[in-house]
Write a structure and sequence with these properties.
The chain is mainly α. It has 14 helices and no strands. The chain is about 75% helix and about 0% strand.
Amino acid sequence: MSHAPIEPNWPARIAIVLSALLALVTAITLAVTIGEMQIPLSTAFQALGNGMFDLGYPVSAIQQGVIFDYRLSRALLAALCGGTLALSGAILQALLRNPLAEPYILGISAGASTGAVAVMILGFGGAVLTISGGAFLGAVVALLVVALLATGAGGSSDRVILAGVAGSQLFNAATATIVTTLANAEQARGVMFWLLGNFGGVRWPDVWVATPVALICFGVCMLHAKVLDAFAFGADAAASLGVAVTRVRIVLFATTAVMTATMVSIVGTVGFVGLVIPHAARFLVGPAHARLLPACLVIGAIFMILADILSRILVPQQILPIGVVTALFGAPAFALILYRARRPV
C-alpha cells in the first residue's frame, strides 16, 4: 500500500471558499433590499455606493438612511453575531467533548445578560464599567459558577451540561429579580425585549465594536485549531501530545466569554446558534478544526442574517425578537442532537 502524502485539492478548496463568500454576499444583499419600505434594487445599490465610496447618486435622504445606516449595519452586525456565536459553540464542544455545549446552554449568555442588566439598571461599576464590560464580567462569573458546580458534581462532560443548565436558570432568575424589583416600567419593557435578542437598535458604532472582537478572537481560535483536534481524544491524550491543557482551556474559555459577552451586550441573548451551526459545519467540512472554525464563522453569519430577515417578514407590521426565530430552528435541532447522542456510535 502506498503511503504517499495526499496532495490538497486546491481547486476544490478555492471553489468552496468562493462559494461561501458568494453566499455571504447574497445574504447581505437580501438583508439590505428586503424590508417594510420597498426600495428598488438599483436604488439600494446606489445608496450603498454613496455610503461606501461617496459616488453622489441621486438617492433621497430617507432611502439612503434606511439602506446604508439601518439595513447594512444591521446585516453586518447579524453576520458578526452569528459567526462568533457559532465559533464559540465549536470551541466549547471541542473543549468539553460534548455535542450539546454552547454559550446559551452553559449559562454564559445568561451570565452576560445579568452583568449587562446590572450595569443598565443598577449603574453597577459607575463610569468604570461599560455595558460590554459588565457583560464580560457576568460571563466570566457564569463560567466560574458552572465550573464549580460541574467539579462538585463529578466533572464529567454530562455533568458540565447539567451545571450549565442550573447556572443559566440561576442567572436568569437574578436578571428577572433586578428587572422586576428595581427597574421602572419603561426600563423593564426595554430590557425584557432586549433580552430576547434585538437588532433593531444596531448602528455603525456597534459594528465598529464587534468587528475587531470577532477578528481577533477568530485569529486566537485558528492559532489553536490543531490543539483542539488533540482534545478530540480527551484532555489526558492532549497532555500526552505536549499540549498545555490548562493554559489552552483558560485562553479559549476567555475567548469564548469575550465573544459571547460582546454580542450579548449589543443585541441581547440569542440562543441555539452555537449549538446548531457547528454540527451543520462539521457535516459539511469534517471535524478538523482548521476547516471547521472558518466554516462555522461563515455559516453562522449567513444563518443569522437569514434569521434576521425572517424576523422582519414573518409577521406583517411587526418585528419578532431574533432569539425567538433562532429558537424556532434551534429547539428541534437540539431534540435531534439529543436523539442521535443516545444512539450507540
